[in-house]
Amino acid sequence: MMFKGTDNSPFIYGSDDKDIIDGSNFNDWIKAGGGDDLIRAHDGHDRIEAGRGHDIVRAGDGSDTIFGDFDDDLLFSDTTYAPRVIPHSGESDDRLDGGPGRDTLVAGDGADLLHGGEDGDAFVFRFHDPMVGTTHCYTTVMDFEPKQDRFVLDAGDFGKGDLFGANFVNHSKGFPGEFVDTFYNGEAANAHGEHVVVITDRGFTSSSAAATAIHGEARGDIIVYHDEKTLGQEGKTHGATLAYVDSANHAHAFAHVDNLHDMSDLTSLTAENFGFI
């Protein structure tokens, strides 16, 4: 069944069948019901409740809140079809909550909040340069569990776009979809050019400081480090930061993990926590 939002009502209800639901360009509240649904919210600041079933949700422009509910869902914070456009400040800050099930949560531009919920989830990053205007804003993952979750870095169109299409270098182990080919977890001084480096002996106040502390880094490498910034500096607290190396001794953050509070939490990260597509 197909449901389409109107200009007259912000409420859109689905059924318990397999629905295709299109929101309006206003601020919608979409409640999909059961079934394996496709939900396209379009513009506006929307609230989407996907309900039970294996659902696909594309939030679109605006600051949206998505609840995946039960089962395995695929949640996109932004549209995947339109050309990439830098939003105005605060207009693309989305919240995705997967709920129970093995969910895939796809971050976009803006200061997104991702909560995977129960079971093993994939947190997908399409761009290493999430921006709002001229200010770098990055995604916060609220509940990463190293034993069952993973970060997935999209390298599908690397080098084909301009500054605003930047994404990741494919360092998968053999084929896209597999985990990273070279990995290091330990003291900064003993890292030597691995494609994902997790630093566990000290924290840093900036991504470039972390890049300077290791050896052999190259463009496209990923550094994970304990963030020693306090609340008020970019609005983040102690936790883990993921950074992208773009030149020697220089990197910039693209994600923060709130629940890895202590440096010792990073020791449990392995190569299988980092995949490429």
UniProtKB/TrEMBL annotation:
It holds the Pfam family HemolysinCabind. Gene3D superfamilies: Serralysin-like metalloprotease, C-terminal. The lineage of its organism: Bacteria, Pseudomonadati, Pseudomonadota, Alphaproteobacteria, Hyphomicrobiales. Transmembrane segments: none annotated. Coiled coil: none annotated. GO terms for molecular function: calcium ion binding. PROSITE patterns: HEMOLYSIN_CALCIUM (PS00330). This is Putative nodulation protein.
